[in-house]
Protein backbone atom coordinates (compact mmCIF):
# COMPACT_ATOMS: atom_id res chain seq x y z
CA UNK A 1 0.00 0.00 0.00
CA UNK A 2 1.18 3.53 -0.80
CA UNK A 3 0.07 6.23 1.63
CA UNK A 4 0.64 9.98 1.38
CA UNK A 5 0.61 12.13 4.52
CA UNK A 6 0.22 15.92 4.40
CA UNK A 7 1.02 17.89 7.54
CA UNK A 8 3.47 20.76 7.46
CA UNK A 9 4.25 24.19 8.84
CA UNK A 10 4.18 23.81 12.63
CA UNK A 11 5.03 20.97 14.98
CA UNK A 12 1.32 20.71 15.77
CA UNK A 13 0.70 19.49 12.23
CA UNK A 14 3.97 17.61 11.65
CA UNK A 15 4.20 15.57 14.84
CA UNK A 16 0.79 13.86 14.40
CA UNK A 17 1.73 13.03 10.80
CA UNK A 18 5.03 11.51 11.87
CA UNK A 19 3.46 9.53 14.70
CA UNK A 20 0.91 8.18 12.25
CA UNK A 21 3.69 7.30 9.81
CA UNK A 22 5.44 5.36 12.59
CA UNK A 23 2.21 3.49 13.26
CA UNK A 24 1.69 2.67 9.59
CA UNK A 25 5.26 1.43 9.25
CA UNK A 26 4.84 -0.75 12.35
CA UNK A 27 1.57 -2.20 11.01
CA UNK A 28 3.02 -2.83 7.53
CA UNK A 29 6.82 -2.55 7.16
CA UNK A 30 6.45 -2.81 3.37
CA UNK A 31 4.08 0.12 2.93
CA UNK A 32 5.35 3.07 0.91
CA UNK A 33 5.04 6.39 2.70
CA UNK A 34 5.11 9.81 1.06
CA UNK A 35 5.28 12.78 3.44
CA UNK A 36 4.43 16.17 1.97
CA UNK A 37 5.80 19.42 3.30
CA UNK A 38 7.13 22.82 2.34
CA UNK A 39 10.56 24.39 2.39
CA UNK A 40 9.42 27.02 4.91
CA UNK A 41 8.23 24.80 7.79
CA UNK A 42 9.76 22.75 10.60
CA UNK A 43 9.22 19.59 8.54
CA UNK A 44 12.52 20.19 6.73
CA UNK A 45 14.32 19.12 9.91
CA UNK A 46 11.70 17.04 11.79
CA UNK A 47 10.82 14.66 8.96
CA UNK A 48 14.39 13.60 7.99
CA UNK A 49 15.27 13.32 11.69
CA UNK A 50 12.61 10.61 12.02
CA UNK A 51 14.00 8.73 9.02
CA UNK A 52 11.42 9.70 6.40
CA UNK A 53 11.85 11.32 3.00
CA UNK A 54 10.16 14.68 2.52
CA UNK A 55 8.47 15.63 -0.75
CA UNK A 56 8.42 19.40 -1.04
CA UNK A 57 5.45 21.25 -2.53
CA UNK A 58 4.69 25.00 -2.58
CA UNK A 59 3.19 26.43 0.59
CA UNK A 60 -0.35 27.78 0.21
CA UNK A 61 -1.24 29.72 3.38
CA UNK A 62 -4.94 30.46 3.65
CA UNK A 63 -5.69 34.14 4.43
CA UNK A 64 -8.02 34.76 7.37
CA UNK A 65 -9.41 38.03 5.97
CA UNK A 66 -10.22 39.81 2.72
CA UNK A 67 -6.87 40.96 1.37
CA UNK A 68 -4.57 40.68 -1.64
CA UNK A 69 -3.51 37.16 -0.63
CA UNK A 70 -7.12 36.00 -0.96
CA UNK A 71 -7.28 37.35 -4.52
CA UNK A 72 -4.13 35.47 -5.53
CA UNK A 73 -5.17 32.23 -3.77
CA UNK A 74 -6.57 30.50 -6.90
CA UNK A 75 -3.37 31.14 -8.88
CA UNK A 76 -1.17 29.89 -6.04
CA UNK A 77 -3.32 26.79 -5.63
CA UNK A 78 -3.15 25.93 -9.33
CA UNK A 79 0.64 26.23 -9.26
CA UNK A 80 0.86 23.96 -6.22
CA UNK A 81 -1.56 21.36 -7.59
CA UNK A 82 0.72 20.15 -10.37
CA UNK A 83 3.64 19.39 -8.05
CA UNK A 84 1.34 17.85 -5.46
CA UNK A 85 -0.31 15.56 -7.99
CA UNK A 86 3.12 14.29 -9.09
CA UNK A 87 4.13 13.65 -5.46
CA UNK A 88 1.05 11.58 -4.54
CA UNK A 89 0.37 9.83 -7.87
CA UNK A 90 -0.36 6.15 -7.31
CA UNK A 91 -1.21 6.55 -3.61
CA UNK A 92 -3.99 4.39 -2.18
CA UNK A 93 -5.00 7.03 0.35
CA UNK A 94 -4.05 10.58 1.36
CA UNK A 95 -4.07 11.52 5.05
CA UNK A 96 -4.20 15.24 5.84
CA UNK A 97 -3.48 16.95 9.15
CA UNK A 98 -4.08 20.58 8.21
CA UNK A 99 -1.46 23.27 7.69
CA UNK A 100 0.02 24.86 4.58
CA UNK A 101 0.25 21.66 2.54
CA UNK A 102 -3.18 20.26 3.33
CA UNK A 103 -5.43 22.19 0.93
CA UNK A 104 -3.43 21.50 -2.26
CA UNK A 105 -3.02 17.89 -1.11
CA UNK A 106 -6.79 17.46 -0.66
CA UNK A 107 -7.56 19.00 -4.05
CA UNK A 108 -4.84 17.00 -5.81
CA UNK A 109 -6.07 13.76 -4.22
CA UNK A 110 -9.64 14.51 -5.25
CA UNK A 111 -8.57 15.15 -8.85
CA UNK A 112 -6.69 11.81 -8.90
CA UNK A 113 -9.61 9.98 -7.23
CA UNK A 114 -7.41 9.09 -4.24
CA UNK A 115 -9.56 8.64 -1.09
CA UNK A 116 -8.91 11.15 1.66
CA UNK A 117 -8.69 10.81 5.44
CA UNK A 118 -8.73 14.06 7.43
CA UNK A 119 -7.38 14.34 10.97
CA UNK A 120 -8.16 17.43 13.05
CA UNK A 121 -6.02 18.00 16.14
CA UNK A 122 -7.69 21.10 17.56
CA UNK A 123 -11.15 21.72 18.94
CA UNK A 124 -11.67 24.41 16.28
CA UNK A 125 -10.85 23.15 12.79
CA UNK A 126 -8.86 25.27 10.35
CA UNK A 127 -10.12 26.22 6.89
CA UNK A 128 -8.05 23.58 5.06
CA UNK A 129 -9.52 20.73 7.12
CA UNK A 130 -13.03 22.15 6.80
CA UNK A 131 -12.62 21.90 3.03
CA UNK A 132 -10.94 18.51 3.24
CA UNK A 133 -13.69 17.07 5.42
CA UNK A 134 -16.22 17.72 2.64
CA UNK A 135 -14.10 15.64 0.25
CA UNK A 136 -13.06 12.90 2.67
CA UNK A 137 -13.91 9.23 2.93
CA UNK A 138 -13.24 9.41 6.68
CA UNK A 139 -12.82 12.25 9.18
CA UNK A 140 -11.07 11.87 12.54
CA UNK A 141 -11.08 14.39 15.37
CA UNK A 142 -9.33 14.81 18.70
CA UNK A 143 -11.98 16.92 20.42
CA UNK A 144 -15.64 16.07 19.93
CA UNK A 145 -17.52 18.46 17.66
CA UNK A 146 -14.60 19.93 15.74
CA UNK A 147 -15.80 18.58 12.35
CA UNK A 148 -19.19 17.20 11.26
CA UNK A 149 -19.45 13.41 11.11
CA UNK A 150 -15.99 12.83 12.55
CA UNK A 151 -14.87 9.85 14.64
CA UNK A 152 -13.27 10.90 17.93
CA UNK A 153 -10.12 8.78 18.03
CA UNK A 154 -7.72 11.26 19.62
CA UNK A 155 -4.34 12.57 18.57
CA UNK A 156 -1.63 10.15 17.40
CA UNK A 157 1.08 10.09 20.09
CA UNK A 158 4.71 9.00 20.26
CA UNK A 159 5.41 5.47 21.46
CA UNK A 160 7.59 6.90 24.24
CA UNK A 161 4.36 8.36 25.67
CA UNK A 162 1.91 5.55 24.88
CA UNK A 163 4.27 2.91 26.29
CA UNK A 164 5.22 4.95 29.36
CA UNK A 165 4.96 3.20 32.72
CA UNK A 166 5.10 6.17 35.07
CA UNK A 167 5.65 4.14 38.24
CA UNK A 168 8.60 2.23 36.79
CA UNK A 169 10.15 5.34 35.20
CA UNK A 170 9.75 7.70 38.17
CA UNK A 171 13.08 6.75 39.79
CA UNK A 172 14.86 6.99 36.43
CA UNK A 173 13.39 10.49 36.02
CA UNK A 174 14.46 11.53 39.51
CA UNK A 175 18.06 10.55 38.75
CA UNK A 176 17.94 12.24 35.34
CA UNK A 177 17.14 15.63 36.91
CA UNK A 178 18.48 14.99 40.42
CA UNK A 179 15.03 15.24 41.98
CA UNK A 180 13.42 13.50 44.95
CA UNK A 181 11.31 10.55 43.69
CA UNK A 182 9.03 10.72 46.76
CA UNK A 183 8.29 14.45 46.81
CA UNK A 184 5.25 15.58 44.72
CA UNK A 185 6.44 17.23 41.52
CA UNK A 186 5.00 20.14 39.54
CA UNK A 187 5.94 20.16 35.86
CA UNK A 188 5.97 23.57 34.17
CA UNK A 189 6.54 24.18 30.47
CA UNK A 190 5.31 26.64 27.90
CA UNK A 191 6.78 25.27 24.69
CA UNK A 192 10.27 25.16 23.25
CA UNK A 193 10.69 28.96 23.40
CA UNK A 194 9.01 29.23 26.79
CA UNK A 195 6.19 31.45 28.02
CA UNK A 196 7.42 34.53 29.82
CA UNK A 197 4.35 35.11 31.99
CA UNK A 198 4.33 31.45 33.08
CA UNK A 199 8.01 31.75 33.95
CA UNK A 200 7.49 34.93 35.97
CA UNK A 201 4.54 33.58 37.96
CA UNK A 202 6.11 30.19 38.72
CA UNK A 203 9.42 31.73 39.79
CA UNK A 204 7.49 33.99 42.19
CA UNK A 205 5.41 31.08 43.54
CA UNK A 206 8.31 28.61 43.79
CA UNK A 207 9.52 29.45 47.34
CA UNK A 208 6.03 28.99 48.82
CA UNK A 209 5.36 25.84 46.80
CA UNK A 210 8.63 24.30 47.95
CA UNK A 211 7.79 25.20 51.54
CA UNK A 212 4.44 23.43 51.08
CA UNK A 213 6.27 20.25 50.08
CA UNK A 214 6.38 20.48 46.28
CA UNK A 215 9.38 20.23 43.99
CA UNK A 216 9.30 21.89 40.57
CA UNK A 217 10.70 20.88 37.18
CA UNK A 218 10.49 24.05 35.11
CA UNK A 219 11.37 24.33 31.43
CA UNK A 220 11.86 28.06 30.89
CA UNK A 221 12.42 27.90 27.11
CA UNK A 222 15.28 28.87 24.87
CA UNK A 223 14.16 32.50 24.71
CA UNK A 224 13.99 32.95 28.50
CA UNK A 225 17.36 31.90 29.84
CA UNK A 226 17.33 34.68 32.43
CA UNK A 227 15.07 32.38 34.46
CA UNK A 228 17.78 29.70 34.74
CA UNK A 229 18.96 31.03 38.08
CA UNK A 230 17.38 28.83 40.72
CA UNK A 231 19.78 27.48 43.33
CA UNK A 232 17.04 25.72 45.30
CA UNK A 233 17.49 21.92 44.93
CA UNK A 234 13.70 21.54 44.94
CA UNK A 235 13.25 24.04 42.09
CA UNK A 236 14.96 22.67 38.98
CA UNK A 237 15.04 25.09 36.03
CA UNK A 238 16.14 23.85 32.62
CA UNK A 239 16.21 25.49 29.21
CA UNK A 240 14.48 22.65 27.42
CA UNK A 241 13.11 19.21 28.33
CA UNK A 242 14.56 16.67 25.94
CA UNK A 243 12.86 13.69 27.62
CA UNK A 244 9.18 14.50 27.97
CA UNK A 245 8.47 10.86 28.81
CA UNK A 246 10.60 11.16 31.95
CA UNK A 247 9.08 14.55 32.77
CA UNK A 248 5.63 12.96 32.65
CA UNK A 249 6.88 10.02 34.71
CA UNK A 250 7.78 12.19 37.68
CA UNK A 251 5.05 14.85 37.37
CA UNK A 252 2.08 14.79 39.74
CA UNK A 253 0.59 17.98 38.29
CA UNK A 254 1.46 20.38 35.48
CA UNK A 255 1.19 24.03 34.49
CA UNK A 256 1.21 24.40 30.70
CA UNK A 257 -0.25 26.00 27.63
CA UNK A 258 -3.06 24.04 25.96
CA UNK A 259 -1.84 23.04 22.52
CA UNK A 260 -3.53 19.95 21.12
CA UNK A 261 -0.48 17.70 21.53
CA UNK A 262 0.16 18.90 25.08
CA UNK A 263 -3.42 18.20 26.16
CA UNK A 264 -3.44 14.80 24.43
CA UNK A 265 -0.19 13.68 26.07
CA UNK A 266 -1.11 14.89 29.56
CA UNK A 267 -4.46 13.11 29.44
CA UNK A 268 -2.98 9.93 27.96
CA UNK A 269 -0.62 9.60 30.94
CA UNK A 270 -3.11 10.97 33.49
CA UNK A 271 -1.56 14.20 34.76
CA UNK A 272 -3.97 16.84 36.14
CA UNK A 273 -3.04 20.22 34.72
CA UNK A 274 -3.52 23.93 35.14
CA UNK A 275 -3.96 25.07 31.56
CA UNK A 276 -2.99 28.63 30.66
CA UNK A 277 -4.11 28.96 27.02
CA UNK A 278 -1.99 30.99 24.64
CA UNK A 279 -3.73 34.38 24.61
CA UNK A 280 -3.60 34.76 20.81
CA UNK A 281 -5.13 33.03 17.79
CA UNK A 282 -8.77 32.01 17.50
CA UNK A 283 -9.19 30.61 21.01
CA UNK A 284 -8.56 26.99 20.06
CA UNK A 285 -6.22 26.33 23.01
CA UNK A 286 -8.95 27.07 25.53
CA UNK A 287 -11.32 24.83 23.59
CA UNK A 288 -8.70 22.04 23.52
CA UNK A 289 -8.54 22.00 27.32
CA UNK A 290 -12.24 22.59 28.04
CA UNK A 291 -13.44 18.94 27.82
CA UNK A 292 -10.69 17.87 30.24
CA UNK A 293 -11.63 20.63 32.65
CA UNK A 294 -15.31 19.65 32.47
CA UNK A 295 -14.32 16.07 33.33
CA UNK A 296 -12.40 17.30 36.40
CA UNK A 297 -8.92 16.63 35.01
CA UNK A 298 -7.69 20.20 35.21
CA UNK A 299 -8.53 23.88 35.35
CA UNK A 300 -8.15 26.80 32.96
CA UNK A 301 -6.61 30.03 34.21
CA UNK A 302 -6.47 32.81 31.59
CA UNK A 303 -2.99 34.18 31.04
CA UNK A 304 -4.00 37.64 32.27
CA UNK A 305 -5.37 36.18 35.51
CA UNK A 306 -2.45 33.91 36.34
CA UNK A 307 -0.60 34.96 39.49
CA UNK A 308 1.59 33.37 42.12
CA UNK A 309 -1.26 33.61 44.64
CA UNK A 310 -3.73 31.96 42.24
CA UNK A 311 -1.28 29.18 41.38
CA UNK A 312 -0.48 28.35 45.00
CA UNK A 313 -4.11 28.43 46.15
CA UNK A 314 -5.17 26.17 43.26
CA UNK A 315 -2.57 23.53 44.09
CA UNK A 316 -3.44 23.68 47.80
CA UNK A 317 -7.10 23.09 46.92
CA UNK A 318 -6.19 20.23 44.57
CA UNK A 319 -4.20 18.50 47.30
CA UNK A 320 -7.05 18.86 49.78
CA UNK A 321 -9.50 17.41 47.25
CA UNK A 322 -7.14 14.58 46.30
CA UNK A 323 -4.74 14.73 43.37
CA UNK A 324 -5.46 11.09 42.54
CA UNK A 325 -9.08 11.91 41.69
CA UNK A 326 -8.03 14.63 39.26
CA UNK A 327 -5.38 12.35 37.75
CA UNK A 328 -8.02 9.69 37.08
CA UNK A 329 -10.34 12.27 35.54
CA UNK A 330 -7.53 13.46 33.24
CA UNK A 331 -6.74 9.87 32.24
CA UNK A 332 -10.38 9.24 31.36
CA UNK A 333 -10.10 11.87 28.61
CA UNK A 334 -6.95 10.43 27.02
CA UNK A 335 -6.42 7.72 24.43
CA UNK A 336 -3.20 5.71 24.38
CA UNK A 337 -4.49 3.62 21.48
CA UNK A 338 -5.04 6.57 19.15
CA UNK A 339 -2.32 5.60 16.66
CA UNK A 340 -3.59 2.04 16.26
CA UNK A 341 -7.17 3.25 15.90
CA UNK A 342 -6.23 5.85 13.28
CA UNK A 343 -4.01 3.43 11.33
CA UNK A 344 -6.91 0.98 11.15
CA UNK A 345 -9.17 3.64 9.61
CA UNK A 346 -6.49 4.62 7.07
CA UNK A 347 -5.87 1.02 5.99
CA UNK A 348 -9.59 0.32 5.68
CA UNK A 349 -10.09 3.39 3.48
CA UNK A 350 -7.10 2.47 1.32
CA UNK A 351 -8.25 -1.11 0.87
CA UNK A 352 -11.66 0.01 -0.36
CA UNK A 353 -10.17 1.88 -3.28
* H/E series: EHEHEHEHEHEEHHEHEEHEHEHEHHH
Secondary-structure content class: alpha/beta
User: What is the 3D shape?
Assistant: elongated
**Ends distance:** 11 Å
Across the major sheet, the strand order is 3-2-1-4-5-6-7
Radius of gyration: 21 Å
Largest sheet: 7 strands, parallel
How many strand elements?
13
Mean pLDDT, as a whole number?
92
What fraction of the residues are assigned to beta strands by DSSP? Answer: 15-25%
Helical content (DSSP H or I, runs of 4+): 40-55%
What is the overall number of helices? 14
Flag low-confidence runs: none
Ordered list of secondary-structure elements with their pairings:
Blueprint: E1 2-8, H1 11-27, E2 32-37, H2 43-49, E3 54-56, H3 68-88, E4 93-99, H4 102-111, E5 116-120, H5 127-135, E6 138-141, E7 151-152, H6 159-162, H7 166-177, E8 185-189, H8 196-211, E9 215-219, E10 235-238, H9 244-250, E11 253-256, H10 260-269, E12 273-275, H11 284-295, E13 298-300, H12 308-321, H13 323-331, H14 338-351
Parallel strand pairs: 1-2, 1-4, 2-3, 4-5, 5-6, 6-7, 8-9, 8-11, 9-10, 11-12, 12-13
Helix pairs in contact: 1-14, 3-4, 4-5, 7-9, 8-12
Amino acid sequence: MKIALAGGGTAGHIEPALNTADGLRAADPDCELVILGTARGLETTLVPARGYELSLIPAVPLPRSLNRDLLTLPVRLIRALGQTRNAIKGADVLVGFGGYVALPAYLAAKSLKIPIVVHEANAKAGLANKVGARLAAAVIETVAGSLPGAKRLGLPLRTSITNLNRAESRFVASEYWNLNPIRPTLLVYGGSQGARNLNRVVSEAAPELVELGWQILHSVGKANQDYLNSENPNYKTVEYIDRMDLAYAIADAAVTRAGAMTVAELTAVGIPSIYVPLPIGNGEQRLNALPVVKAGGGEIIPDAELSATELVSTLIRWESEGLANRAEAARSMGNKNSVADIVQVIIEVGQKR
